[in-house]
Amino acid sequence: QVQLVESGGGLVQAGGSLRLSCAASGRSLRMNTMGWFRQAPGKEREFVASIDWTANTRHYADSAKGRFTISRDNFNNTLYLEINSLDPEDTAVYYCAAVRLIMSRGTETRPSDYDYWGQGTQVTVAS
DSSP 3-state assignment of 93? Predict the structure, then answer.
């Protein structure tokens, strides 16, 4: 049973930075694409970024390009999302997710592409 646990969220002032972490347990996900999604109040869950198992392919939503950086530590089975220049519109619950199929392309953007999900971590950006 795969478990994903996010951490690192919180309340931050606009313009600040955060680093979200997602710790995986149950089995190694070092050969699986992983991704970050977010869901703001009253909105659908949206894709933020994904990374393939080699970390050579990193794919970002247009809204995330330039300010978000996805990375992974396969040795420690951990996924990261660094967010800079935070804006109040970034306020959302951030979820990490993983694809069950190994060695996939790393460009999966639909929630239905992902099989494992964390519970989410709240990010609130104050103006």
Answer: strand
**What separation in angstroms does the CA of 45 have from each of 8, 14, 92, 102?**
19, 22, 9, 24
The β-bridge partners of 79 are 22, 72
pLDDT digits (tens, 9 = 90+) for 89-102: 999 999 999 999 99
- Cα separation of 104 and 83, whole Å? 25
Distance CA 103, CA 106 (A): 8
Phi-psi region of 95 (alpha: psi -120 to 50; beta: other; left: phi over 0): beta
Per-residue pLDDT tens digits for 39-65: 999 999 999 999 999 999 999 999 999
